[in-house]
Amino acid sequence: LVGLDLGVPPLIECPENIILNNSTGDCGTSVSFPIAAALDPDNDLVSLIQTSGLTSGSQFPVGESVIEFTATDAVGHITVCSFTVTIIDNEPAVAVCQDITVELDANGFAVITASQVDGGSTDNCGIASINLSKETFDCSNIGANNITFTVTDVNGNESMCTAVVTILDVI
Question: If you placed Cys at 102, which of 22, 90, 110, 156 could pair as Cys (CB 3.0 to 4.6 Å)?
Fold first, then answer.
């Protein structure tokens, strides 16, 4: 009965799911993994190939990637397995503040934006938002005012710095 296919598909086992942090300064990391293991009860396994996802040793982006392997026997039985590679961005943005001086208008008010205080903030995956703890000023704020500048990256990581907003009344 050697070589007689009993109608049993190949057995396949994928590697365990992988969870890693990003590499410093990158929006991903290099990931290596073993190939799936396969055997066929009928001893007629023809192929075991990766059919989906990035290959082992590739640079995986932040997020979840699915890797799939397929085993095929001589009579066309196919068995598929998959696992996930999850890369977590745990690197906060780099908030860079610059101090600014603003003059009150004729009505005694001044409004600033976060971009005026941003001194070149960066992030490995991209910045989603920049915000200030205070944007409006009046006569009661004349002089130096410490405000918090917050940078949030696209994956929710935050970084903060303090800027000095000097308010002048020149009218």
Answer: 110
Tell whether the model's pLDDT for residue 165 goes beyond 80.
yes
* pLDDT tens-digit readout, 118-150: 999 999 999 999 999 999 999 999 999 999 999
The number of beta carbons lying within 10 Å of the beta carbon of residue 117 is: 26
- At 169, give phi and psi (nearest 5°): -110, 100
The pairs formed by 156-162 with CB atoms below 8 angstroms and a separation of 24 or more are: 156/128, 157/89, 157/90, 157/91, 157/92, 157/93, 157/123, 158/92, 158/93, 159/92, 159/93, 159/94, 159/95, 159/121, 160/95, 161/95, 161/96, 161/97, 162/97
- Tokens 């989603």 correspond to 128
Closest CA to 139 of 96, 168, 101: 168
Counting Cβ atoms within 10 Å, is residue 155 exposed (0-12), middle (13-18) or buried (19+)? buried
For residue 14, the number of C-alpha atoms closer than 13 Å in the C-beta half-sphere is: 19
Alpha-carbon dihedral sign for residues 129, 132, 137, 142: negative
User: Computed from CA positions of residues 71, 74, 76, 77, in that sequence, does the dihedral angle turn out positive or negative?
Assistant: negative
| Phi-psi label, residue 154: left if phi above 0, alpha if psi -120 to 50, beta otherwise | alpha
